Amino acid sequence: MNNGERSRLLIVEDEPLINQAVADRLRAEGFEVEQVYDGPTAVATATAWQPDLLVLDVMLPGFDGHEVCRRVQAERPVPVLMLTARDDETDVLVGLGVGADDYLTKPFSMRELVARVRVLLRRVERAVELAARPGAELVLGTLRIDRAARRVHVDHDAVHLTPTEFDLLVCLAERPGTVLTREQLMGEVWDWPDATGTRTVDSHVRSLRAKIGPDRVRTVHGVGYALEAQA
Question: Tens digit of pLDDT for each residue in 156-180?
C-alpha cells in the first residue's frame, strides 16, 4: 500500500454530486482520494497516480467503466469496486468478467461503500502476506488452487480470477461438498455478514463458473452453494 502511506483511491463517477459525496466520505475515513469524471481521464490518472483501488461507475463519457477496468487491469492488477445504476445481471457479469472485484447498485449506503472498500484493501494485504510464505495446494480432481501464489489451474490450463473470485473459490474448496449459505459466504469472503444484497454472491458464482466450468459449483436452491469434490 504505497510504502505504508495512506491508501490511494481513485473515484471515477460522472455525476458530480455522487462523485463529491463518495470522495468526501472516503477522505473522512482517512484515505487519499483523486476524483475524475470520464473514462479516458480515469485510465490516464490510474497510470500516472497508481491508486490502490478504483471506485468506478459503469456509465461514463468517453468510454464506459468496463473499458476503463479492462485497460487499467491490463497495465496493473488493482482492486475495482464498480457502481452500477441498474441491478442488471448482464451488466454486473460483464464488469466481473473484465476484472472488477465487487459491485454496488445505486442507490447505496456510504456505510456499505466504505465497508466494501476496506474489505478489498484488506484482501490485497492478505494476498501479499500469503505470497511471502509457502502454502499448501488445494486439489480437487483437475482443479488445482495454489493459495500462496493465488493461482488456479483447470486441466493444467491457467485460469485468471479476480481477487474476490479467488477468495470465493478457496472458501468453497476448503470444504468440498459442503453447502455454504449466501450469508456465510458474504461473511467469510466479503467480511460483510450483515449485508442483505446476497445477489452479489450469485453474480460472482456465475462469473466463477464461466471460468472454471459450469458443473463445479453446485446450487442448492434456497440455501447456497457447494464446490463438487470431483467434476
Answer: 899 988 878 888 999 999 899 999 9
Q: What is the DSSP string of 56-125?
A: EESS-SSS-HHHHHHHHHHHS---EEEEESS--HHHHHHHHHTT--EEEESS--HHHHHHHHHHHHHHHH
Instruction: Using a cut of 0.70, tell me whether the model's pTM lies above it.
Output: yes
User: H-helix or E-strand containing 41?
Assistant: helix 39-49
Tell me the pLDDT tens digit for each residue of 88-109.
666 667 777 777 888 888 889 9
**Closest C-alpha to 154, from 165, 98, 164, 131:** 165
How far apart, in whole angstroms, are the C-alpha atoms of residue 191 and residue 194? 9
